[in-house]
Specification:
single chain, about 475 residues, alpha/beta, Flavocytochrome B2, Chain A, domain 1, TIM Barrel, 8-stranded parallel sheet, 4-stranded antiparallel sheet, 20 helices, about 10% strand, oxidoreductase activity, Aldolase_TIM
Length: about 475
């Protein structure tokens, strides 16, 4: 097909675009698009491959109506397509302009400052957004500052070991990279670049269902990176991939995905249970509404402001997921299973009763329920009301941990490992693979320093007496009708 012909098809009555050298007619999909018609219309008559890859995996194309694929574009006529939007033109500028030198990034917060300089408004609103007024996210960040250490002194801390394990797999540090959806908003090469960034350190990463690269491509990128640098690899501490599952309402589709993940070599399945519906992402809604208004669509803007139009497909999450569904998920997976999004002691105990291998205490980065409990509160609640969970499951936490010392606090209170998300998104956006590596180095150095100053030399020496756990435990809200 001719590029000049495609360039003319940029209205709500006829909207074509180019994706990976193929022409698609998305006119009939405009009203079905989860993010609203405005996003598609902005790419009408253009080569939308770069923008598409920042948000979606190629697998998403299966959701287009039958007949949408019109055929390949004549590559000699691509120059006749409509020019890039202003936002796309900004992305073509050399990356890193005005950024501080990477060596000057000495705390994880430095990456957020750098990323804000680099990211387009839509990308920034997506990653920085929280639910409602932001109370849950603010509580995440504030909670860990309430924990104080009780250091022991005059101990030989010349040599310390930060080695830990996750679900039976050795790792050099007790923290991992949390799953982050639509990572293409941070970097054009998205999850592949992220995986390359944590290859050398040996830490683990949990990959999201809504990644912008395919499951197989992500797994292959780690294998290729390890093989390419085999001479520098510590085989006993090789990085591992785990998978965060959003369970589709279509069981057959969910099973198909589980089997793909298993075949790709992922080590464990982390089933997301805190997203039966999408939370109120306030900043994201405003951004979508603004885009719709810019395209002259008042109705789309109204829908975006009310959350009717979102970045998430309706068939991506299931509002009917129940505890009994874990049975068939476990059967199809056949390996370690973690329940992601536990927010109270009762559910932690239920996860243990259902035979899960781990739980992740999380409020989804403060992006779901308004006034949700932070992971620290849930961890303390478990310690108070069902401590047996800590001995039978691997308990992970995430949300608001920004320092290696925070990681140590969580371990002292019974956590097995800590997930860190946004700092790695920001590091990837600003510096690519090198940023991911630097973020790991910062957290690792802070953890080792905190261990020395607290007075321990290995993680098997962590203990609640090293923090002010008793005072914190007294502040836990006691359920009026506990059903533990």
């Amino acid at each position: 097909m001719d590029g000049a012909d495609v360039a003319k098809r940029n209205t709500s009555k006829c909207c074509w675009m180019v994706l990976n050298a193929q022409v698609y007619d998305v006119t009939s999909y405009l009203d079905q698009h989860p993010g609203g018609a405005a996003i598609l219309l902005a790419q009408g008559g253009r080569d939308a491959t770069i923008e598409f890859s920042r948000i979606h995996s190629p697998d998403v194309l299966q959701y287009l109506p039958t007949g949408s694929l019109l055929g390949p574009i004549d590559t000699s006529t691509i120059g006749a397509l409509a020019p890039p939007t202003n936002e796309e033109a900004l992305r073509s500028l050399p990356t890193g302009e005005g950024l501080r030198h990477l060596s000057k990034c000495v705390v994880t917060g430095d990456f957020e400052v750098a990323a804000k300089m680099m990211l387009p408004a839509r990308s920034w609103s997506y990653v920085s957004s929280s639910s409602n007024s932001g109370l849950s996210m603010a509580a995440n960040l504030d909670s860990w500052s309430a924990v104080r250490f009780r250091p022991r002194v005059l101990r030989d801390v010349q040599t310390v070991s930060t080695v830990s394990s996750i679900l039976g797999h050795r790792c050099p540090f007790p923290f991992y990279i949390s799953p982050m959806g639509i990572l293409g908003r941070a970097h054009a090469n998205a999850e592949v670049e992220l995986v390359r960034g944590f290859r050398r350190s040996g830490i683990h990463g949990v990959i999201s269902t809504v990644s912008t690269k395919t499951t197989e491509e992500i797994a292959s990128s780690l294998t290729e990176a390890l093989e390419r640098h085999d001479d520098s690899r510590d085989v006993s501490a090789a990085p591992q991939l785990h998978f965060q599952l959003y369970t589709s309402p279509d069981r057959e589709a969910a099973i198909k995905l589980i089997h793909r993940v298993k075949a790709a070599g992922f080590r464990s399945l982390w089933v997301t249970v805190d997203t039966p519906v999408l939370g109120k992402r306030t900043i994201d809604r405003r951004q979508l509404a603004e885009e719709a208004l810019a395209m002259g669509s008042d109705e789309q803007a109204r829908a975006a402001g009310l959350g009717i139009v979102t970045h998430v497909r309706q068939n991506q999450v299931s509002a009917s997921l129940a505890w009994t569904d874990l049975e068939w998920i476990k059967k199809e997976w056949g390996g370690p299973l973690v329940v992601k999004g536990i927010q109270c002691a009762e559910d932690a105990k239920l996860a243990m009763d259902y035979g899960c291998q781990g739980i992740l205490l999380s409020n989804h980065g403060g992006r779901q329920l308004h006034s949700a409990p932070d992971a620290l509160s849930t961890l303390l609640e478990i310690r108070a009301y069902c401590p047996e969970v800590l001995g039978n499951l691997e308990v992970f936490v995430d949300g608001g941990l920004r320092d290696g010392a925070d990681v140590l606090k969580a371990l002292c209170l019974g956590a097995k490992g800590v997930g860190v998300g946004r700092p790695f998104f920001y590091a990837l956006a600003a510096y690519g693979t090198r940023g991911v590596e630097r973020c790991i180095e910062i957290l690792a150095e802070e953890l080792a320093t905190a261990m020395r100053l607290v007075g321990i030399t290995s993680l098997d020496q962590v203990h609640p007496d090293l923090v002010n756990a008793r005072r914190l435990a007294n502040e836990i809200w006691r359920p009026l009708d506990s059903r533990l």
